[in-house]
Give the backbone structure.
Amino acid sequence: MRCADALIKILESNGVKFIFGHPGEQILPFYDALRSSKIKHVLMRHEQGAVHAADGYARVSGEFGVCVSTAGPGALNLVMGVATAFKDSIPLIVITGDVETDLKGTNVFQDIDIESVFRPITLETFHIEDPDDGTLKLKKAIEMIKHGKTGPVHLNFPKDVLNAYVDTSAPTAENVEDKDISLTDVDDAIKLMEMSERPLILAGTGIIWAHAVDELRDFSLNYNIPVATTYSARGVLPEDHPLCLGMIGLRGTTAANFAGKNCDLLIALGCRFSERTVLGIGDPEIIHVNLDSEVLEGNVKIQGNVGQFLDKMKGITVKNTGKWLQELDNHKRTYEIKTNYNDIPVKPQRAVKEILDASNDSTIISDAGTHTTWVTLLKKVTRPSSLLFSGGFGPMGYGLPAAIGASLADPAERVVLVVGDGGFQMTLQELAVIAQENLPILICIINNCCLGIIKQWQDMHYRERYEVELENPDFCEIADAYRIKSKRVNAPGEIFDAVKNALDLNEPYLIDIMVDTEEGIILPKVKP
């Protein structure tokens, strides 16, 4: 069969249900093969949207996402989303078409060295030289992200390779199995655990990708060890659970940061010590488990699957943590945020509080902007992957396409997007996809007619505001043009009812929430 057909068969055999993309000349053989596939193609209106949608799909489904584009401008439009996924370790297969092999490097129409662009923002980028190499590399890429560290893998296919025929007798990719954890490292970890009087688990999203959420909860409960999380791992232990302290580090809870500063042993599982996370950590002994050897730190460094590690941590004799837990009970696990303002237009924190209260246990997608802080501080997360935000890169425009992927990953789940007026206008063309697919996504625009955080930084550190005021269009009219119902509100109390009523409709809906244009946030102590 053609290489393009073989690629589709490989994706089908690995359970791929959706491919997010935008067709173009050099990727047309792939689309021709996709035409007769049981895989559904989701036609995004911009390639950046295709990657963000695949990203949102991966985060909610727990499986890798797939996105595709043509050569040159199509491939370059993927870069923002691929970098976002790379920073947050989201498993993606990224497929691009390219000019024909004999034209590569000759500066013809749409020819560019795309591999050099993708190399710093992917686990690996492959330029495919022949059809057998293409099928082999796709199988290898899938094995890599299933059994190794997670992130995007890029495969670049010249058009002639996609059209060429595969040798069915060619060797297949070797199966990659999880690397066994060193027994010596396990023994060293057990010794530290048995000596600890004030242990703390720091859970990262490696727990989610290893499908080890249940194992983490059992481990925490069996040994009575409190849990703090990174932002993206919030909910791996419900934040209303007695052993959950909440998020650690920048914007972390008082309890989580106190525990991080005062624990004598930190058991870091599936996370990295980012500059934001370490703000909540003192100088404890550290057991660090991660598939990525390059991020390992601490006294016992274990390269491996966190699920496999937790499986080996059974039957250990540990010290009673009752006194430690009583000490932690003196510190708050929620944020004290005043929201009961009655101003008109409504304060943004009041608006976000009403959105979250009315949304109940819906999956919340948060874009980048001033509202992000209020979502972070006011949302209590009780399920893993039910609060999505690109914490590592934070691009404006992530939320709308990510909501599309999230909705397709779990059609039974209600999806609520909280997005600023600036971020919304970065990718608003993806409203067409929401309407076309009739996805029951509720879009809540926090509309302050400006780039709020940037305006606030300018007020604090620079001479005056500059180029941050937005002359916005009528977002309700835009929604109407896409055949999406909408409503505009600006007063306290109206938002809760509007959100509740919109969710009851179970169809696409947009709420334009006019908020106080001068209300800022509590900015973190970092330089702008």
Summary: The radius of gyration is 24 Å.
